[in-house]
Amino acid sequence: MTAFTKQFGEYDAATGTWSIPSYFLSLLDSLNYIGFAVGLVIGSLFSQRYGRRLTMFLMSCYALITATIIVTSRSRGQLLAARILNYVYIGIELSVVPIYQSEIVPTQVRGFIVGTYQLSIYLGGLIINSICRETSSLEGNKSWMIPFGLFYLIPFCIMSLIWFIPESPRWLLLQGRIEDAEKSLKRLRQGTISDDEIAAELSSLQVGLDIEPEKGAFKELFQGVNLKRTAIVIGLSFFQQATGQAFASQYGAVFVKSLDTINTYNFTIITSAIGTVICLWSNFFNDKIGRRKLFMAGSIVQVAALFTMGGLGTASPTTTPEKTAIASMMAIFSAGFGLGWAPLTYVVVTEIPALSLRDHSQRVASLTNILTTFVVAFTLPYLLDDGYANLHSKVGFIFGSLAVCDCVFTYFCVPDCQGESLEDVDRLFHEDVPVRKFRETHLPSLEAENAKVWAEKEIKSDIHILGQTNGSKNFV
Asked: Which Pfam family is one of this chain's hits (predicted)?
C-alpha cells in the first residue's frame, strides 16, 4: 500500500519513489519470531498446568492490547515492537489450539478437525487480502489501519464464547479430575453416540493413561521409543518451513510486485483462494486417503514448481511471459503446500506423542518450526535482492532441493495414524511397529490390554506376598 510505504519507508530521490528498505523488511519478518517463541513456551507451560480454555481466554485478552499497539503505530520502532508482541499471541495459540482439537474430537475426524487450524489461516488470508485490495485505493493511513483494526475481531469472539465449550477430557484425566472429564466428554459426544459408548470411550482414555509407561518428564522425549517420536515431530516441523513457504506467504506480494506482470493484490487473493480450496479438500480426504500419500503428493508438486521457477529465473533477460510463469509457479507451489504439509503437519505432530508428553512435544515441534521460519524469513531479502545474492526466482533451486529431502523423509519416517485413537497410536510405538506399517497393523482392544496389565500386577503381587511369607517362615 502506498500510504503504508510512505509511513514506514524511505524516499529515493533518484527514482522519485518510496520503498521499505530490505533491512527493515528482514527485521519485520524475522524478529517477530522472538515473540512467537516466547508465546509458545509460555502458552504451552500455562496450558499444561491450568488448562486449555483458560489459556485461550487469556491469550485473547492479550491480543486486544497488541492490536491497539499495531493500529496506533506511526514509527518503524513501534510497528516492529507491535509485531513482536502480537506474535506472542500467535505462539500461545499454536501451543494450545491444535492440541485441544486433537484431544476433543472423535478418532474418525481427527485429521479433518486438526487440519482446520491451517484452513483458518488460509481463509483468514483470503479475507484480509480481499479487504486490503479494497482499502488500498483509500487515501491516507486508513488504507492500512482498517485491515490492522480487524485484529480485534477474532480475539473478542473467542473471549466471549470460550466458556461455552467444554475443557479437554484428556487434560482433565491427566489432572486426576475423573468426574469433570466424564461431564466434559458427555457434552462433547451427547447426541452423537449412546451413553454406553461414551462410558466405553472414557474407560479407554483412562486405560490408555494407566498403561502408559511415561510419567510426563521432559527428558522422556529423548528416551527409548519416544526419541523416534520426537525425531519425527522435529523433522515434520523443520520441513514444513524449510521448503520456502515464507517465500510465497510473506514475500510473495513483494516479489510479484518486483516482476511487474500481475496485480499484486489479485495475485495474493488468487493464491489464498487456491490454498483454501486445496486445504479444505485435503482435510476432507486425509482420514480416508492417508497422511503419507498426501504428504508425498504435496512434496512432489512443490519440487516441480520450485525447480521450474528456478529454471525460469536463469534466463537473462527474463521476458514478460517467463515472469508470468514464475508467478504461476509460486501459485502452484502454494497449492502443493496446502495439499499436504500445511494442514497435515499439525495433525501428525499432535497425534504421535505419548499422552503425558504431548505438551512437551508440541513445545519442541513448534520451537523447531519457529527457528526454521526465522532463518528462512531473515535470509530471504538477502537471497532475493539485487544488492546481495541477487538470486530472485533462482531461490527455487535451494528450496526445491530441500523439498526433495522432505519427500525422502516422508517415505521413510512419517506414519499413517488415521483411524487410530491417540491411545492406540501410543501403543503402536511401544509395540515397535515400523512407521510404514501403522495402517495395516491391528492391535487388541484397550480393555483386553488393561486386563493383561492387571493380571501381570496381580501375579507380581502374589509372588511378592509369597516371598514375604516364606521369609517369615524361615525366620521362625
From this structure: Sugar_tr
Angle between helices 291-312 and 341-351 (to 10 degrees): 140
Residue-wise pLDDT for 372-429, tens only, equals 988 888 888 788 777 778 888 899 999 999 999 999 999 999 999 888 888 888 889 9
- Selection from 92, 45, 87, 95 nearest residue 69 by Cα: 87
Count up the domains in the chain and report the number: 1
Distance (Å, whole) CA 340 – CA 77:
37
- CATH number for the domain spanning 243: value is 1.20.1250.20
Task: Kindly report the backbone phi and psi dihedral angles of residue 433, in degrees, each rounded to the nearest multiple of 5, phi listed first.
Answer: -75, 130
Return d(Cα 159, Cα 154) in angstroms, integer.
9
> Would you state the pLDDT for residue 447?
57
Type and span of the H or E element at 147: helix 142-149
The CB-side HSE value for 44 (13 A sphere, CA atoms) comes to 23
Q: Which of 105, 188, 118, 170 is nearest to 355 (CA)?
A: 170
Residue whose C-alpha cell reads 486508513 in the numeric block: 142
Q: How far apart are CA 279 and CA 121, in angstroms?
A: 10
Decide: 313 and 253 in contact? Cβ < 8 Å.
Answer: no
The count of C-alpha atoms lying within 13 angstroms of the C-alpha of 297, restricted to the half-sphere facing its C-beta, is 14
In whole angstroms, give the CA distance from residue 474 to residue 476.
5
Q: What is the pLDDT of residue 474?
A: 47
Report the alpha-carbon distance of residue 299 to residue 333 in Å, rounded: 9
Per-residue model confidence (pLDDT) at position 294: 94
Whether 199 is covered by a domain: the verdict is no
This prediction's pTM? 0.83
341 lies in some domain:
yes
At 281-338, the pLDDT tens digits run: 999 998 888 899 999 999 999 999 999 999 998 888 888 888 889 888 988 999 999 9
Transcribe 68-101 into DSSP letters. Answer: HHHHT--SHHHHHHHHHHHHHHHHHHHHHHHHHH
Contact yes or no for 295/379 (Cβ under 8 A): no
Burial of 366 (0-12, 13-18, 19+ CB in 10 A): buried
| Separation CA 23–CA 11 (nearest Å) | 15
